Amino acid sequence: MIKLIKLDRIFIMLKIRLRRTGRCRQPTYGIIVTEARSKRNGHYIESLGNWNQTTEKLTINKKRYYYWLERGAQPTLRVRKLCEKAR
Predict the structure, then answer these.
(1) Which of these, 60, 57, 58, 41, lies nearest to 49 by C-alpha position?
(2) CA distance 44 to 16
(3) Number of H helices and number of E strands within the chain?
(4) What Cα–Cα distance (Å) separates residue 69 from each residue in 1, 24, 55, 76, 77?
(5) Is the pLDDT of residue 1 over 60?
(6) How confident is the model over 21-64, as pLDDT tens digits?
(7) What CATH number is given for 5-86 in this structure?
(8) Which own/partner contact pairs does 43-46 have at CB distance under 8 Å and 24+ positions apart?
(9) Rg (CA), the chain
């Protein structure tokens, strides 16, 4: 079941996904909450943490992650796997 979040009297569908940052050939990713229709590096609602792919270092605010899950945000497959590994 998909829940829609009401922000500023508008119902939107939210995703928890990765946002690419870092330099050329040295990617790091931010874990963000964003609208489902927004671009990969576009506007986001909240930053939850980051993941460095080369060192496999993950930092995430689990309290806020579960807060957004309760509000109906859908994590992408990669974010879901990362958060399960971080438990």
Answers:
(1) 60
(2) 10
(3) 2, 7
(4) 12, 32, 27, 12, 14
(5) no
(6) 999 999 999 999 999 988 888 899 999 999 999 999 999 999 99
(7) 3.30.1320.10
(8) 44/19, 45/7, 45/14
(9) 13
Considering only CA atoms, which of 84, 83, 75, 87 is closest in space to residue 17? 75
Say how many residues make up the chain.
87
Domain parsing of the chain, residue ranges: 5-86
Would you state the structure tokens that stand for residue 77, as one six-digit string? 């497959």
N- to C-terminal Cα separation, the chain: 25
Q: Which two tokens stand for residue 78?
A: 């990669």
Grade residue 5 by pLDDT with cuts at 50, 70 and 90. low
